[in-house]
Structures are given as C-alpha cells and as structure tokens.
Write a structure and sequence with these properties.
The chain is of the alpha/beta class. It has helices spanning 5-31, 53-68, 100-108, 119-130, 161-169, 184-190, 195-198, 212-218, 241-256, 288-296, 307-318, 346-354, 369-375, 393-399, 415-448; strands at residues 39-46, 77-84, 88-92, 145-152, 172-179, 199-202, 227-234, 265-272, 276-280, 330-337, 358-364, 384-387. A six-stranded mixed beta sheet has the order 3-2-1-4-5-6, sandwiched between helices. A six-stranded mixed beta sheet has the order 9-8-7-10-11-12, with helices on both faces. Helix 2 runs antiparallel to helix 3 (100-108). The chain is globular, with a radius of gyration of 26 Å.
Length: 449
C-alpha cells in the first residue's frame, strides 16, 4: 500500500520530533549540565575465571556508561582501571586518557585474565600504584576526591580487611559492588562508611547497568551556585553528652557534602537550649577543615528546649547581612531536635518559609513529628527526617540532600539524568501515538477502498 500524504506528514513530524529530542540530548551532554567534582577515580574489576567472557563485556559496558556521565579532564575527573584475577594488571592509568572517547575506547579493549580472585592484592596495587602521583593521581587535598569502585562476583582467595582499611585511611573512598554468589561480608569489609551508600548487590552481570545512574549522581556536583546554610542544633539536657558528640559528627558529615568556599557554600552554626547561642556566623570559615574543627569545639549547653526562640533567632539574626548572609543567595536552615519544644514554634516556622528559607527538620528520640513537619519546607517528605536512635543519624545525613543549585540552574545535580529520562518517556509516548494513528489511518483507508 502506498502511504497517504497524511501518513507521510505524520511520519515526518514524528521523525522531526525525535531528531529534535536527540539533538537536545546531545546538546545537554555537550554542555555538561551535570558537572562532576574533581575526582581521581579507579575502577578495580574482577576478571577471574568465574566471570564468563560475555559477563565481562557487560562490566565494560557499565564502566563506559559511568564514564559517559563524568566531567572528564585533567582538572576535573581522571579515570583509571585495574584488572585483577590471580595477578593484577594496570589497564588504564589516571594520567593516560584525558577524554571520554579515549577512555571508553581503552575500556573496550580490556581482556579478562581468567584465573583466581586476589581481591586484597588488587586493593594493595591500587593503593601503591594506581593512586600514586607517578600514575597521574593528584596530591591529596580537600579539593580532589579519591574513589575506588570494586566489582567482584566471588569470595577472595586472600584477605581484604586490613588492606582496605589502609586504603580508606589514605583517603580513598571505596564502593564495593557484588554480583551473583558474592561473599557479602567481604564487600562490607572493603567498603567505606556508611555501608548502605557504598555496598551494592546485583543478581547477575546482565543487570549491573542499573547501577549506572547511582554512580553518575554520586559524582555529580554543582559548580556555580552559592548557598548560605545555618544549623540550629538542640543542646538541651535530654540529648546527653555522648549523643551530642554524635550530633557534631553528623553536622560534619553534611559539611563534607557541601562545596564550601568563599564564593559558594557558607555555613553558620547556632546552638539552643533554654537560651540561644551563635557558635559562628556565616562566612567566618570558608574551607571544610576550619569549619569541621569549629564544629568539634562546640560545647554542650544542656538545659531546656526552646525551639521557637531558636527559629526567631534564625529569622532576626542568622540570615541578615550583619551576620554574614549574602543578598540573593539561597538560604537553607537545618533544625535538629530530640524533643518537644517548650515554646511555640508555629509563627516563626511559618515566617521562615514565607521568607523563602529552605527549611529542613531533623528529629531523634522523643522529637515530635508534627513539629518537625511544621518546621519543614514543602514537599514535607523531602525536608523532614526522624530516627529513634542517635546512632542512626548517619542514615539521615546521607538522605538529606541539600540542593545547593538555584531552581532554574541547569547545573542541578541530577538534571541531566532527569532530562534523559524525560527524553526517553517522550519518545515512548510519541511511538505509541504513531502506532495508534497508523491504525486509524489504515482503518480510514480501508473504508475509502
């Protein structure tokens, strides 16, 4: 049957729309919407005899897809690959390839070694060689992350616990990915804390690609936005000294996730009990090291729980220019409490949100969830957190993702991944419309005939 003019126009429209979407996707990738923070990244991949050739090809596809999501370059992310079985082979050095195309091509050429499983030996090699300056690693600093991603499907034939600890002590963040009948205790011995963030398991190599998005987002950071972040910390007597130390560690976990500098994230700290005390204002410390030291020195106040008074202090003082707040910069308040407030919080909580402050509420123990929700910004589910145990605060720290990008900032950390998903959904919708309209046109043509 010869296509009717209507069908031809429809097909051309669909093809044109798809081409436009593909061009937008390519433009988004070229523009680097998702900038990754400077990282020395080394993949450590198991190619022992238990990994079949077809499965090893799937590992290489996973590596290539993660690399595609990185901001690769001499001053951005450098990538290395260590291949291991009974022996270890340095396939790609951090200094070798400075472009994605070169890296991906090198990855496709890696061949499996097909012998034993000396995972401990491979970690030692990464520590001594792959992450050395001679192989292209940068001098240790707060500005460059050191990350190893280990992929394995079996039980190692050597010990991994001590060597993994030495690697972590040297500042290397370790992600452990297990496949199939992997020994899960081994993964936990290798991975960095918190383990929930750093240990992953997939049933088979055929689905390892589903971890791609996680690692694309894990390395993503906004590079051109400024944020003023103020912590309001409950120092009442119910917290207790040992738990107050855990709270300070929790604050520093969140600081570690911020891009702290003179032009980007500024952090202030306020402690409250029956009174309110500013520990340090916004802008006093403009690097993570000094900030974290100042947090560690915070002395425990004890006494009551005047959360409403603390919120009013935030409104009247913390976010004012006189206390270091910058005009036109996103304002984020993080309120921590372990109990019911002894004063009224409603008016101050409402005004903070009306002023455009992005408010997070975190509760532990006897904290009242209704109060947390009253403090938190919309959507509430993304801005309030609760746990019964102080020791579980690490889980909250990893879930509390402060979006330090402006709402319309194209550098929003997961914008590229979201954009790609929208493109895929749009294409699927267009395809369904094409099928439906094609059927209708066919029915019309049959009636005409």
């Amino acid at each position: 049957m010869t296509p009717t003019p209507l069908l031809v126009l429809l097909l051309l429209g669909i093809i044109g729309a798809q081409a436009t979407l593909d061009m937008r996707t390519a433009a988004a990738m070229a523009a680097g919407l998702c900038k990754t923070r400077p990282t020395d990244l080394v993949f450590i991949i198991d190619s022992s005899r238990s990994v079949r050739p077809s499965e090893f090809e799937q590992v290489k596809v996973f590596l290539a897809k993660v690399i595609e999501g990185l901001d690769v370059g001499p001053n951005a992310t450098r990538v290395g690959v260590v291949n291991y079985a009974s022996r270890v082979k340095n396939e790609v050095s951090l200094k070798t390839h400075r472009t994605k195309a070169g890296l991906v091509k090198a990855v496709t050429k890696i061949e499996p070694l097909s012998t034993g499983t000396m995972t401990g030996l491979s970690i030692q090699f990464a520590l001594n060689v792959a992450f050395s300056e001679g192989e292209g690693a940068r001098v240790k600093s707060n500005d460059v992350s050191k990350v190893a991603i280990i992929v394995t499907d079996g039980r190692p034939q050597d010990s991994v616990k001590d060597v993994a600890q030495r690697a972590r002590d040297a500042g290397i963040e370790i992600f452990a990915i297990g496949v199939g009948r992997v020994d899960m205790s081994t993964l936990r011995q290798m991975a960095s804390e918190p383990l929930d963030d750093h240990v992953d398991y997939v049933e088979s190599y055929s689905v390892i690609e589903k971890l791609t998005k996680k690692f694309q987002e894990a390395f993503c950071a906004c590079s051109n936005s400024a944020t003023d972040v103020v912590f309001l910390i409950d120092g009442s007597k119910s917290v207790r000294p040992e738990n107050f130390e855990l709270v300070k560690k929790w604050i520093n976990q969140i600081i570690d996730k911020l891009d702290v500098s003179d032009s980007k994230a500024h952090v202030g700290l306020v402690q409250y009990s029956s009174l309110v005390r500013q520990e340090f204002p916004l802008g006093r410390f403009n690097n993570k090291k000094d900030l974290k030291e100042a947090v560690k020195k915070m002395a425990y106040m004890e006494r009551g729980t005047m959360t409403g008074q603390a919120l009013r202090y935030l409104l009247d003082n913390s976010f004012t220019p006189g206390q270091g707040a910058r005009p036109g910069v996103t304002k984020v308040g993080i309120v921590f409490t372990d109990g019911r407030s002894q004063d009224y919080i409603g008016e101050a909580a409402k005004k903070a949100k009306e002023n455009g402050f992005r408010m997070y509420a975190v509760g532990v123990g006897n904290a009242v969830e209704d109060e947390l929700k009253e403090i938190a910004s919309e959507p509430t589910a993304e801005h309030y957190f609760y746990t019964a145990d102080f020791k579980a605060m690490t889980q909250i720290a990893k879930k509390l993702q402060i979006n330090i990008c402006q709402e319309d900032d194209p550098c929003e950390c997961d914008s590229l991944v979201k954009f790609q998903k929208k493109v895929e959904d749009a294409l699927q919708a267009l395809t369904k419309k094409l099928e439906t309209m094609s059927k209708r046109i066919a029915m019309l043509e049959n009636k005409i005939v």
